[in-house]
Design goal:
Blueprint (H helix, E strand, L loop, with lengths): L1 E8 L3 H12 L4 E5 L12 E2 L8 E2 H14 L3 E4 L3 E7 L2 E6 L4 E9 L3 E3 L15 E2 L2 H4 L7 E5 L3 H10 L5 E5 L9 H8 L4 E4 L3 E8 L1 E9 L2 E6 L2 E4 L3 E3 L30 E3 L11 H28 L2 H9 L5 E5 L16 E5 L2 E6 L5 E7 L4 E2 L1 H5 L7 E4 L3 E5 L2 H4 L2
Parallel strand pairs: 1-2, 1-8, 2-5, 8-19, 10-17, 11-12, 11-17, 12-13
Antiparallel strand pairs: 3-4, 6-7, 7-8, 9-18, 14-15, 15-16, 20-26, 21-24, 21-26, 22-23, 22-25
Helix pairs in contact: 1-2, 1-6, 4-5
Length: 412
């Protein structure tokens, strides 16, 4: 089993950013990607909303990101699909589809998702024979054809603009009266003579004879057929990150992983960044920001675990683990005092839910925040070992619970 500091799962903008920062921090890290590096931006023709690039293809931007990370020594492994992730003490075990197991202190999940399907008759039957979820991949096969784009967001309009290079006529079908795409994208696409919008309308069926020949849409309670040879579906993505975990991980009703502001999930040592986590904006810029936050906090988390390994001999840490069932469960309300600076150190804590802040008195006597604590974070153990007084005051930032093992267990 190969051991790492950090395993990054997913090679899109978030994963490549995390990899860059990890490599620059001299962490032993590996990035696993089940397909080609780049993620969904590989399927985007032109990107015009990423700072520093007035216009760049998705393929070019992903290559630049990968080359940047590789320059600093990131290990990128492509075509390495992950089967599952499980916890083993302080480490995470990442199991690949081929049975290979990797061990790491922390994991950053940056996998995106799968295209959301329409779920109508004919969609599966004609997949690859007129039904597609990637205009950049398949658009060139439809030169001179009548095409339909299903969806009203940025992806639908970006892919629609690309398809106008090949389409004789392009229909944009959306279930609402108003589109959700950026105004500039709407203006560019809808002003073309060859582009026609069909709204509000719902696709009810895709039909043909061997290949796609028509779609049936329902508008204002009436059904009508629109003759097309290609149907490009862009109605969203279904996240797949939560299905990788052997244990439960908190997610929203749509399956997106829930994180705090440091990108920590409900499993200590597991972070999520980019389109796989619950957040409003699904943009390259937000994915990059998420990943930066995640890897910087993961670096600190890993250092804390290393400190624990150094300060607690293996036997002592085993005793601590064995005594977990005897640990005292504590809960605190926001702002309630947990430990006070200068008090005697008696026991250490491990946070299992919520967040806390550690503060110290500054030169002017005011309290200054010196640390942010969250699930999986330990505190108080060093002072206990050294019989030193508490060096900071800790209080919950939000509702907070922790376990406090018996004193004898922590000093064995």
């Amino acid at each position: 089993m190969t051991e790492y500091d950090l395993v990054i799962i997913g090679g899109g903008p978030a994963g490549l950013t995390a990899g860059l920062y990890a490599a620059r921090a001299n962490m032993k890290a590996v990035l696993l990607e089940s397909k080609d590096v780049g993620g969904e931006i590989l399927n985007t023709d032109l990107i015009e909303d990423y700072p520093g690039f007035a216009s760049v293809t998705g393929a070019d931007l992903s290559k630049k990101m990968a080359d940047h990370a590789l320059k600093f020594g990131l290990n990128i492994e492509t075509y390495k699909p992950v089967k599952e992730i499980r916890s083993d003490g302080d480490r995470k075990i990442v199991v690949l589809e081929d049975g290979t197991e990797l061990s790491a202190y922390a994991v950053i999940v940056t996998v995106g998702g799968e295209p959301t399907k329409l779920g109508v008759p004919g969609e599966q039957e004609f997949h690859g024979r007129g039904v597609s979820y990637c205009a950049v991949c398949d658009g060139a096969f439809f030169k001179g054809a009548d095409l339909a784009v299903i969806g009203g967001g940025d992806s639908a309009f970006q892919e629609g603009l690309f398809l106008t290079r090949f389409a004789k006529t392009l229909y944009v079908v959306h279930r609402r009266n108003e589109f959700r795409a950026q105004a500039i994208l709407q203006d560019r696409l809808l002003r073309m003579d060859k582009v026609h919008s069909i709204t509000p309308a719902v696709v009810k069926e895709i039909g043909g004879n061997g290949d796609v020949k028509w779609i049936e849409v329902e508008r204002d309670g009436k059904k009508e057929r629109v003759n097309v040879e290609g149907v490009f579906v862009f109605i969203g993505f279904r996240p797949v990150g939560r299905h990788l975990f052997k244990e439960h991980i908190e997610h929203d009703k749509n399956g997106y992983l829930i994180t705090d502001q440091y990108m920590r999930t409900s499993i200590p040592g597991v972070y999520a960044a980019g389109d796989t986590r619950a957040q409003l904006a699904k943009q390259i810029t937000t994915a990059v920001g998420d990943a930066t936050t995640a890897v910087l906090h993961a670096e600190r988390y890993i250092e804390e675990l290393r400190d624990m390994e150094r300060d607690f001999p293996t036997a002592s840490r085993a005793v601590v683990a064995e005594s977990a069932s005897k640990a005292e469960l504590l809960t605190f309300a926001p702002g309630e005092l947990v430990v006070r600076e200068g008090d005697a150190a008696d026991r250490f804590f491990m946070i299992i839910k919520g967040q806390a802040e550690a503060t110290r008195r500054g030169a002017d006597g005011a309290q200054v925040v010196v640390n942010q604590l969250g699930p999986g974070d330990y505190f108080g153990e060093i002072g206990l070992l050294k019989n030193a007084p508490r060096n900071a005051t800790s209080a919950p930032a939000v509702s907070w619970s922790a376990v406090r093992p018996p004193r004898d267990a922590s000093r064995s």
